[in-house]
Amino acid sequence: MDAGSEAADLMVREGLQITEATIKLLAAGSKNLAAFLYALAKDNKRVSGKTNMGRLLREGKELRVFQLRESDLAAFNAYAKKGILYAVVKGKNAGDGLVDLITNVDFASQVNLFLERHGYAAPKREDDAAKKADARAPQGNFSPQRGNGLPQERTTTEGKPSVKGRLAALKRAAQDVEPQLPNGRTPPKMRE
Fold first, then answer.
1. pTM of the entire structure?
2. Residue 63 and residue 173: Cα distance in Å, rounded?
């Protein structure tokens, strides 16, 4: 054979191998793309509008519940298409005309804006001063109610012995009494 025919044969063989590798890559890629599109379609990647509770719960974010009149639901549906993901829950026996609107914390401010524009009362804010006024024990490391971590027998402010003091007294009393088992043997000593 001459050199020209060998070169032509080599070129054809290399071309077939490249074509075969390309077809294998395209087949694997199309299979993976089909699996990805199927998973995407099944997962329901809706980012706004009405959805079900399962979708909201799968996100794992904190949920907020708002009450809305059923007559305002159509207006809210139109408003929510602009970027609010929500679910509507209506009680079967509820005859008050209200529905529960559930969304996650990301959309709570937008729902509040809609509710304020449609005449609903603004949500109540908790007062930080009222929370702090109800503290049972004063702050600090050495308050008598909290203790200071020292293993001492103390009494409370009313003169009653503390729990640690009562436990220590009970342990001392138990050591003084020697219990007997029914067969006349003594039980093993307890460790401190």
1. 0.42
2. 55
